[in-house]
Amino acid sequence: MTEAPDFMTEPPNFAAPLTGPEGTDVLSDILRRFRVTGAALLRGEYSAPWGWDAPSADEIAAHLHTPDTRLVIFHIVAHGRCWLEVAGQPRIELSAGDLVGFPQGHSHRMGWGSGAAPFPIIDMFPTPPWKSVPTIRRVERGQVCRILCVYLRCEAPLFDPLTSALPNLIVMRAGGGASGFTDAIVRGLIEEASAMRAGSASFTARLTELLFVQIIRDHLRRSDPNGRGMLAALKDRFVGKALQAFHAEPAYPWTMPELSCRAGLSQSALRERFARVLGVSPMRYLALWRLQLAALLLRQNDASVADIAAEVGYDAPEAFARAFKRAIGTTPARWRNRVPVIE
Fold first, then answer.
1. 144, 121 Cβ separation under 8 angstroms
2. CATH number at residue 192
3. For the segment 146-185, what is each residue's pLDDT rounded down to a tens digit?
C-alpha cells in the first residue's frame, strides 16, 4: 500500500461528552464526527509575474496517496500580494494575512501580474511521503509573494450536513474576524511552517484543525439566519431545538408529536421549516445521522452489527442493514471490511 505523507499527524479529539437536549452543542457534535486525521503543508515563494493552477481536492488527494480521504484546502498569504480566480466568481486580490478556503474542493488559479502562463502546481509537488514542509521556489527579480498551502485531511463523511452547506469559496481577511484568535492561528501556522522546530508537525496538525473549526464558527456568525443549510438551521429557534434533541439522543425513538412538543412548533410547521432550511424532513435527517454514526462505529470498533444497530436506535438488525445498504450501497459488514479500523 502506498504511504501517505509523513507530515500528517493525527490530532486529538477535543470534544466533550454531551449531556442533554437543552445543553447540546450541535456544531461540536457534528465536528466531533467529522474526523480530522492530519494535515499536509506546502510553502511557495513566487516572484511576479507568476501564476499556477490547482486541481480539485480529489486530484490532490490522489497525488498525495490519500485517495480514500477528503481534503479541505486553505491558502494563507504569508507575504506580499496575489490574486485568486475560481470559476464562476470574480477575481479577488489578497494580501499578507488573508486566508482563502475551498470547502467543496474546487479547482482554482492564483498568481500576480500578467504575461506568465500558469503552471500546474501539482507538477511541482515533491514525491510523497513528505518528511517536512516542502517549499516551491520560483523567484527572480519581481515582487515576491509567499503562500502557505494547507491540505487538511479528513475522513469523508457519509452524511455531511455541515461542510456541504458551506460556499465554494470562503475569504477571511487579516483582522476581519470577530476576535484576534483566527489571526493568531494564521500567524502560528506561518511561523511553525517556516521554523520547523521540534514538534512542529504535531503542533501544526492541531493548529490546522483549530483553524478549520474557527473558519466554520466565523462563517456561522456571519451567515444569514433566514438562509438555508446547517448554519442557518443552527440559528433557527425551532429547527435548532429539534437538532439539539436529535444530537443529544440519536438512538431515542423520536416521534413527530414528541419532537413538535420539544421544538415548540406544530408538526406541519416543523416539517415545512425543516424542509425549507435543510432540504429534508426531520425524520429523514435523524435517519441519515444515525447511519453516519453507525458508519463511524463500524470503523472504530469490532462490536457486532446488531450491537451497533441498537446503539444508533434500530430495534432490528435486519432493518438497520436494509437502511444502510439503501443509503450507502453496500452492507454494514462489507463497509467495515473495505476500510482500515481506526484506533
1. no
2. 2.60.120.280
3. 999 999 988 777 788 888 778 899 999 998 765 688 899 9
